[in-house]
Design brief:
two-stranded antiparallel sheet; 8% helix; 7 strands; mainly beta; Immunoglobulin-like; 106 residues
């Protein structure tokens, strides 16, 4: 399972400052982590997304310049996903663990 460690810091994301996401690592898994920030605009049918695929080292910082795609007051979902592969006979099965935080941009 993947778990976001610094949830409290992510509840209110200041889009004018860089934000660091921290999670528990999996030392036996060499697959990357997916970090996705999704903002659903109430006055628009368009979602704003920021996607990163990073090494499973437990921390990643998103620069304020990248966060500028979001607007103040928007709701932002922060999703972390870790993939795992298991082999059953001749079949490889991909499994995914997800953790989610709902935030508000300030």
């Amino acid at each position: 399972m993947i778990k976001i460690i610094n949830k409290e810091e992510l509840y209110n994301i200041d889009i004018n400052k860089s934000v660091t996401v921290e999670w528990d690592t999996d030392p036996v898994n060499d697959l990357p982590i997916s970090i996705v920030l999704i903002s659903r605009q109430l006055d628009s049918n368009k979602d704003t997304q920021l996607k990163k695929v990073v090494k499973d080292v437990g921390t990643f910082t998103i620069n304020s310049s990248e966060l500028s795609v979001f607007t103040k007051g928007s709701k932002i979902d922060v999703l972390l996903t870790r993939g795992n592969s298991e082999t059953f006979g001749d079949t490889v099965v991909n499994l995914y663990n997800i953790d989610l935080i709902s935030s508000e941009a300030k």
